[in-house]
Amino acid sequence: MIVEKLLLHVLIVLAPVLSYSFLFEHRKIGRSPYFLGLLYGSAASLCMYFAYYDSSLYWDLRYVPVVLSIFYGGPISGIITIVALMLTRTAMGGETLYLAYIVAVISCAVPFLIYNCFWKSTPKKRVYLSIITGSWPALVQLIILLIYLYFNEDFLGFDQKLVLYIVVFGTIQILAVVFAAVLNESVIERNLMKDEIRRSEKQHTLGELAASIAHEVRNPLTVVKGFLQLMEGEDERHKHYYPLILSELGRAENIISDYLNFAKPEFKKIETFPLPLLVMELSILLNPYALKEGISLTHTIESDAVLTTDRNQLKQALINILKNAVEATPKEGRVSIKLMEEDDSVKIIVRDTGKGMTKEQLARVGSLFFSTKEQGTGLGTMVSTRIIESMGGRVDYTSKLGKGTKVSVTLPLTHLLSRETV
Ligand code: ADP
Ligand code: MG
């Protein structure tokens, strides 16, 4: 009997979260603490109305809505629920009314006390906290009941049934809290996801606007740079400023083209070319830079693959990866490029003996604006990944902190790119 009644209470306890998440999802009222307080308050009152009465005690799940209301609705919602609970209990009267008041005060104090700590926890921890706090009233009830029994043994007539009731009551109470807390967490997650989608839509628009502005800025910059180069030879008085002005302008231009590449990698000129030649070119291009940093740059070629794609874009993607490898490597370190074939794809593997990355850095590499460098833009790896992915390929990073990093660029020999004999 008690089980049926308590299962009905589980339904009552779940009703508020179901109604505010599904029925009032798009309305402001669905998030109002007053409304939530009323919903949970009604649930608590209904639990009491349909309570199972035995051994001079009311067996119900009234404290589950209270705990949920405090945690998920906030203090205002919690107070409204407690007031509703107290009013209903007073109306019901009975001999154990003063006991009910004591249990209510002790039970409600805990969720209020840990409210701040609750919202600083992760979603999983929040569910555990709800379970512990949700079981707390049952424990309080049990302790007070035992104390009561101790002093008024003749009043209740202690029997085994009571122990069974307490076990059933405790179990169902915990189950109800678990269901409700998990449901609440999924509602929170869904709302966060919706916000995230809205935010990324906004970012997308902003990104497109920024790309068009970057494009417009690049043209005047090129003109200014041209004229400054012309003036460099004539203006004797400010001669020593020019190299700095030009190098800073060059940096600005680089940042803009990196950004434009990221925003929209365009394949302008599709050519068919042997990959070994490109790898050799890269090695020659970056060798002086590596030497200046005291790093040896080597290459190994184990494939004669020929690709058809935008050669300059691919070169840019690999330069970004190689530059990062050189920048991460200390003096006397090594950076190597290896070209090899595997099944239907070619692999360009860039290894370095540099500082490597932590797990967190590894997880973020390739995402926009992630940089650990003082002058870094956090665009290079993003641009490279975008270019390679738009060629149907893949970039994989593996890294060990303090040991080095391995970047594998895998390009299919079929999609977009075709294989011919050299
Ligand atoms: P930036 O070079 O401007 O910082 P990138 O997008 O090129 O931007 O790189 C992002 C970050 O990824 C770097 O700041 C660095 O922390 C990390 N990174 C990339 N490649 C390597 C590498 N080979 N070794 C260690 N860290 C790397
Ligand atoms: Mg970089």
From TrEMBL:
Localisation per UniProt entry: Cell membrane
Keyword Transmembrane found: yes
Membrane-crossing segments per the record: 6-23, 35-52, 64-85, 97-115, 127-150, 162-183
Reaction(s) catalysed by this chain's protein: ATP + protein L-histidine = ADP + protein N-phospho-L-histidine
GO biological process: cell wall organization
GO MF annotation terms: ATP binding; phosphorelay sensor kinase activity
SUPFAM superfamilies for this protein: ATPase domain of HSP90 chaperone/DNA topoisomerase II/histidine kinase, Homodimeric domain of signal transducing histidine kinase
Annotated EC: 2.7.13.3
Membrane topology: Multi-pass membrane protein
The UniProt record lists the keyword Cell membrane: yes
UniProt keyword terms in alphabetical order: ATP-binding, Cell membrane, Kinase, Membrane, Nucleotide-binding, Phosphoprotein, Transferase, Transmembrane, Transmembrane helix, Two-component regulatory system
Residue ranges constituting the Histidine kinase domain according to the UniProt record: 212-415
Chief localization: membrane
Superkingdom of origin organism: Bacteria
An annotated GO cellular component: plasma membrane
Name this polypeptide is given: histidine kinase
